[in-house]
Every structure is written in C-alpha cells, then in structure tokens.
Amino acid sequence: MSVIVSFDHANIGYLAHPVLKDVTLRVNDGEFLLVVGPNGSGKSAFVKTLLGIIPAMGGEVRLFGERVDRFSDWANIGYLPQSLHDFNPLFPATVEEIVSMGLMAGRTFPKRRSSEDRKRTDEALDRLGIADLRSEPIGTLSGGQLQRTFLARTIVHHPSLIVLDEPNTGLDSKTREQFHTYLEEMNGKKTTIIYITHDISEIHDCATGLLYIDQRVLFHGTLKEFCSSDEMEETLGAHLQHHLCQEHCGGS
Amino acid sequence: MDVLSLLQFGFIQRAIIAGVFMAFLAAILGVFLVLRKLSLIGDGLAHVSFGGLALGLTLGLFPTFIALPVAVLGSILILKLMERTRVYGDAAIGIVSAVGVSCGVILASVSGGFNVDLMSYLFGNILAITQGELLLAVLTSIVAIALIAAYAKDLFAMTFDASYARTIGVRTSRIDTLFFMMTAVVVVLAIQLVGVLLISALLILPATTALQLAKSFRSAIILSAIFAVMSVIAGVFVSFLLNIPTGATIVLMSFVAFVIAAGTRAFFRQR
Fold first, then answer.
1. Parallel, antiparallel, or unpaired: how do β-strands A217-221 and A209-213 relate?
2. Which residues of A touch B211 (CB under 8 A)?
3. Is residue A228 part of a domain?
4. pLDDT at residue A252 tops 60
5. What is the pTM for the complete model shown?
6. Cβ of residue A106 closer than 8 Å to a chain B Cβ
7. Cβ B156–A97 below 8 Å, yes or no?
C-alpha cells in the first residue's frame, strides 16, 4: 500500500505563527480520513499546507512521495476549498465554466478543452444534479447549488486524492446523502479521501481513519481506536464519545 | 463634413487603428484587473510611467522607451510588495504610484520645470500618433492578446480563486509577473491615447460596463472589448467634429456606454 500524503514533524501556520505543531502522519492509498477539530483548531491551515498553498514552517510534507513544493501531478488531486466564505456573487461565470475549471488540473501549456472534457463535465453535472443549471450565472445560485457546483469541479477530472474542506456547507440532507454515497463509491474504487469538518457528528461509517486536531494532533487512528481513546473521552466527554460510537461504530 | 470622409486623413486612420488595438487589449486586461480588485493599478502604473517619461525627457531620449522599463519595474515592485510584505494591493499601488510621481516632479524640476512635452503626456494626443508609435502599439497588442489567449484558463482560475488555482497546477507567481508586466506595457503605450490622468478609465470602464450585462466570463471579455473599441471609434470622430480633446472624449464615450449598460441592467432587474 503506497503512501499518498505524509507529514513529518511539520509545523503549520500563517506568517510565522504556528497554529498546529509537530504533525507526523501518513495517509495511505484508498484511505478515507476524517479530519475533525473545533473552530480555530488549524484544520484549514492543515489542508492548505497539505496542498502547498502555504508552506510548512518546519518539517516536511509530501504528496504522492514528492515534496509538496515540487509536486506537479495536480491531475491526481481534487480540492474543495471553503469557497462559500469568500465567494464573489458578482463574478461573471456560469456553472459550466466553474466546473470545467477542474479539468485543467495538471494540464500543460496550452490548456484547451477537448470533446472528452465535455463528456466529463456533463457527467459531473449529472452526478451532482445540476445539469439543468449549466448555463446559469453562479451569482444567481443558492448556497446549496453553489456548493454542488464546487463539488462537481472537485470530482470532474476523476482525481485519485479528494480533499474536501467542510463539504456539507449549504447542502440539504438529500444532496448530502447522495454526495456521501458517491464518496463511498469513489473510496470503494481506491480513491483516497480526506474529509475536513468541524462537526464531529459527521463521522462517516465508511471512514477508515480519524484525525482529531486542536492546535496539535490529539488523536489519529481508526474509529474503533477512537472509541477506546482516553484522550478523546477527556476532550469530548464520555457521553458524546459513547453516543458517536454507538451510532457509527456498532457500539464498540 | 461627412463623418466617413474623415477616414481619408492619415492621422485619423492611425488614431483609430492604434486606439482600437490598445483599447481592445486594455479592455481584456481590465476584466481581470477589476475582478481582482486591482482596478487602480492603471492609475498607479501611469504615475510611475510619468516618472519614466520625465527621465526620458531629462536625458533627451525617446520618453516611451524609458517609461516602458520603468513601468515594468514598478509593476513588479507592486506585485512583490503584495506577495512578500504585509501590504494590501491598493496600498502597494499607492506607494509605488506616489514614488513614481515624486520622481517625475523632481526630474521635471531639475531639468528646468514642466515643459510642453511632459504636459502632452498628462493628457495624451492620439491624433498626433506617428507611424512608428502605431507599429509599436499594434505589434504589442497582438503579442499581448496572444499571451492572454494562451494563458486564458490559468488567468480565469487565478481571478476566481488564486489558492484553488495553485491546486490545479497554475504557476500563479509566474503568471502574475507576466500579467503585471503586460499591464505596465499597455499603460505606457496607451498614455499616447488618453494621457497619464485618464489611463485607468481605459482599463476600468469597458470592463465594468461589460460586467453589468455579462452572464459568463467569456461574454464579459467579449463585451468589454466591444465597448472599448466602440468608445475609441466614437471618441475619435466626435472629438474631431466638435474640436474637443480626443482622450477625454473617448473616456466620456466609455462612460455613456457604462450608464446605458447599468440602466439596462437596473431596468430588467426591476421587471
């Protein structure tokens, strides 16, 4: 089993101010890792460092075995940022233009769309149930429709690692369920998934690992290990830990 | 006088050809600049160019050839201030712009005060454009438009979300440098059209007019270019017929287009 993501004693933060210290972990091929932590715990900084958007302040981060600052195989990555927060509703773009942006991942100069690209765009729009919105300006969409547009952009190029930062924002329960089913399906086909959320109740039955962070890594292991972790019991309280384990880990 | 008969004059032909090419290019760059909230970079780089023009006049060299590298350096300085220091884009533009104007004023003073040449750059004179300047404007526009077309997908992704663009492999720093340098070149060459004081209108007005009506990014680019070209053609003819300054007339034509577009949008939103 190959290592897809690795952090070695990485310090993570913005402008020389560490928010997450001494992170060491591996994410293997085909894993479904949930990254959970309260607001301000360093989740978004973790994702941005993982993808090389901000540099690690020490230690090393690798993607597919390559140092992230030298990584070039971006076609393997699908990333959903927390776009709804700083989204400009006056930006003149259609749903189709935004979704097809994902197809340019890893492309070399000159970047052009092919007929195969159009098929993939159609497929992603269909998958997220927004095919009828393809020509709509994004400024006219609801929060849920917008999030589905960004999710379609994330998966349109069939990446082998999907990184999702708070993907449930704005989604109704039906779409959320459909999307989770899709993620399970993708994970079943060996796509590695890193799923970031502030809400621990979003624990997935299909998650193979859980990383709990709050300024530092408090827990990294399987869901079963989570259920028996004293540190998690201390952090979350025995009641919440027991409740989550009852619901998602068969009461173990 | 028949409006079309004006086309027999060589200086009108040169003005329209140079104006159309430069306005077309400025309008396309303008869409990216406006959406990235860098609208005033045209103003800032024009002020830096003023310093370069003053240096050229002081040294007795062709001012545009001195203003070009000075403006390019100014654009890189703005970019680096934004990237590497805790300075916002508008503040970086303000700093570089102020330094450019200060240098220009000092150079003009040292060389014996403001002269007519320097003043003509402040207000522009598209009707006085020479064959050499026309050739430079057309060739530069063609090269810059080809570069924008080649990097269109990257520029679109960066304009929408620069952080996301990096995760699809866009070399944002390299493309930003190229984009800022291109903007600097356009500003220097377009000074001939509307002058230092009105240059940012050429970048901002067609783009903001297009954004009133565009539903897609592609349509924003196309509409911006159409509005810019129409404003230049109308501005050249109207200014000649009414015997008023051409640069200022071009800008006012752009503003009329903006008012019509904004009015149209407001009308259809109310219905």
1. antiparallel
2. 90, 92
3. no
4. no
5. 0.87
6. yes
7. yes
